[in-house]
Task: structure prediction
Amino acid sequence: MTRKKKILVAEEMPEFDAGIAGMPEDSKIFVDKSLEIAQYIFRVMEEKGLKQKDLAVKMGKTEAEISKLLAGMHNYTLRSIAKIEAALGVTVVCTPASHKIAFPKLNEARTSYEKSEKKIESASLTAGNYGKLVQMNTNNGFQNVLKAI
Amino acid sequence: MIVEIVPIQNLRYEKVTYYTARVEGRDASEFRDFQQRMSANTNDQIELNEIRRYIQKIGNEWGAEPVHFKDERAAERLPPPYYHFIDSDDPNDYGLRLYCIRLTKEIVILLNGGRKTDRNPERCKNCSQHFKFANRLAEKINEAITEKFIYLNSDTREIEIDEDFDLEL
Result:
């Protein structure tokens, strides 16, 4: 016999979205990056089968110190991220320069893509040449980026 | 007291459906009350918005993975355990706490909280009642899930409750 379900009356909270819309950009970036970094560190630890204890050994710290680091008693600093990178053997923070070294193909494709973007910007976008430009942009840039990825 | 589970219309994201709870006889639901109270002070508001952003990003992009929630006995809390609010010089200021119940990676109930001023939430004048409420509700919901009065639908990412069942704390 199928049981009858209670009807749950939903509530709208516009103040939630309004609050986020009014946030300073740096505050949003802080939240977004902290989520990305945490997700990545924990995923790498999971993939490598590492527990908090193992990370502590690799970083030359006590488990309590690692626990504090991962549990938010301290914000991630560049130094703590560097120690995590060394311990896990992965890059956590990617700068344009490190990106160039780690992903030369992607960088090459990006340069090509950016060049074609500039061509589009400098060309006059009449109805006749718009299609050609989009085609060129697609062929020269974005597809190469996709291939490289 | 009877507690109703309330879906939040605009917090139904790609990866997570958020709910809140309303205690019978109270004007505001728990999460609405939290937002209203924390909007009154500038410092609270900055942190409140960062918690809102975590909720949004977890809902849209990451899913309610355990790594983004700190265990608080039977319940959980936001902000994530790796977040530490740095703008306060007061060593007894642990920042805002929003207690919640992470039922699955797709279903989370957002409750209430306040600014934590003691290491032990049970001793904090701002958080104690919300911490206890979240824990009592989490235990009650877990019991109801075991007894099949509450069902977590992973296809629709919804909480389904038997028509005749009341959550009584």
In short: Chain B has one domain: 2-162.
